[in-house]
Amino acid sequence: MINIVLFGKPGAGKGTQAEFLKTKYNLTHISTGDVFRYNLKNNTPLGLEAKGFIDKGELVPDALTIKMLQDEVEKNPDTKGFLFDGFPRTTAQADALDAFLTSKGWGVTATIALEADDEILVERLLERGKTSGRADDQDENLIRNRYQEYNEKTAPLIEYYKAQDKFHAVNGIGEISEITGRLSSVIDTF
């Protein structure tokens, strides 16, 4: 089983690349954002609980996010592996993911970070914001705040996974097919 954690700053191309990788390697793609939207839209018990925090302007606690993710994993017992997109975002979440996967007899195979210069990513998101309808892609200050959040909370995952010899950085700039090729060259070593 191959379990890949794909991360990078907003606009780095995680969602785009996940679409190619899930097909090429027959992986189940789990996007934290999609899982949240599903639970909220369908008023699941977990979605209703998350909504209570969101409505108060609070972050959804790790324990609830992890429960949603675990439920999503449990829905796919026959998968060849998972592609985690947007999770974990903190070392506490990484610890929880490791513990959960270990309980199933699995583990994280590798973590791959799509790396790109902030200025290029800001331009990508502003361009995406013209068609996405996402307010957070249309305001440069909001974009830069998201990067600050990433630097403070998610960047420490680099050291976390380096300590496990599972971290791989991939240049996220170039043609989509070139980036897919770079990612594949890492995944093909497992």
From TrEMBL:
<comment type="similarity">
    <text>Belongs to the adenylate kinase family.</text>
</comment>
<dbReference type="InterPro" id="IPR000850">
    <property type="entry name" value="Adenylat/UMP-CMP_kin"/>
</dbReference>
<feature type="binding site">
    <location>
        <position position="174"/>
    </location>
    <ligand>
        <name>ATP</name>
    </ligand>
</feature>
<dbReference type="GO" id="GO:0044209">
    <property type="term" value="P:AMP salvage"/>
</dbReference>
<protein>
    <recommendedName>
        <fullName>Adenylate kinase</fullName>
        <ecNumber>2.7.4.3</ecNumber>
    </recommendedName>
</protein>
<dbReference type="InterPro" id="IPR033690">
    <property type="entry name" value="Adenylat_kinase_CS"/>
</dbReference>
<comment type="pathway">
    <text>Purine metabolism; AMP biosynthesis via salvage pathway; AMP from ADP: step 1/1.</text>
</comment>
<feature type="binding site">
    <location>
        <position position="93"/>
    </location>
    <ligand>
        <name>AMP</name>
    </ligand>
</feature>
<feature type="region of interest" description="NMP">
    <location>
        <begin position="31"/>
        <end position="60"/>
    </location>
</feature>
<dbReference type="InterPro" id="IPR027417">
    <property type="entry name" value="P-loop_NTPase"/>
</dbReference>
<keyword id="KW-0547">Nucleotide-binding</keyword>
<feature type="binding site">
    <location>
        <begin position="11"/>
        <end position="16"/>
    </location>
    <ligand>
        <name>ATP</name>
    </ligand>
</feature>
<feature type="binding site">
    <location>
        <position position="128"/>
    </location>
    <ligand>
        <name>ATP</name>
    </ligand>
</feature>
<dbReference type="GO" id="GO:0004017">
    <property type="term" value="F:AMP kinase activity"/>
</dbReference>
<feature type="binding site">
    <location>
        <position position="146"/>
    </location>
    <ligand>
        <name>AMP</name>
    </ligand>
</feature>
<dbReference type="GO" id="GO:0005737">
    <property type="term" value="C:cytoplasm"/>
</dbReference>
<feature type="binding site">
    <location>
        <begin position="58"/>
        <end position="60"/>
    </location>
    <ligand>
        <name>AMP</name>
    </ligand>
</feature>
<comment type="function">
    <text>Catalyzes the reversible transfer of the terminal phosphate group between ATP and AMP. Plays an important role in cellular energy homeostasis and in adenine nucleotide metabolism.</text>
</comment>
<comment type="subunit">
    <text>Monomer.</text>
</comment>
<feature type="binding site">
    <location>
        <position position="37"/>
    </location>
    <ligand>
        <name>AMP</name>
    </ligand>
</feature>
<keyword id="KW-0418">Kinase</keyword>
<dbReference type="GO" id="GO:0005524">
    <property type="term" value="F:ATP binding"/>
</dbReference>
<keyword id="KW-0963">Cytoplasm</keyword>
<feature type="binding site">
    <location>
        <position position="134"/>
    </location>
    <ligand>
        <name>AMP</name>
    </ligand>
</feature>
<dbReference type="Pfam" id="PF00406">
    <property type="entry name" value="ADK"/>
</dbReference>
<keyword id="KW-0067">ATP-binding</keyword>
<keyword id="KW-0808">Transferase</keyword>
<keyword id="KW-0545">Nucleotide biosynthesis</keyword>
<feature type="binding site">
    <location>
        <position position="32"/>
    </location>
    <ligand>
        <name>AMP</name>
    </ligand>
</feature>
<feature type="binding site">
    <location>
        <begin position="86"/>
        <end position="89"/>
    </location>
    <ligand>
        <name>AMP</name>
    </ligand>
</feature>
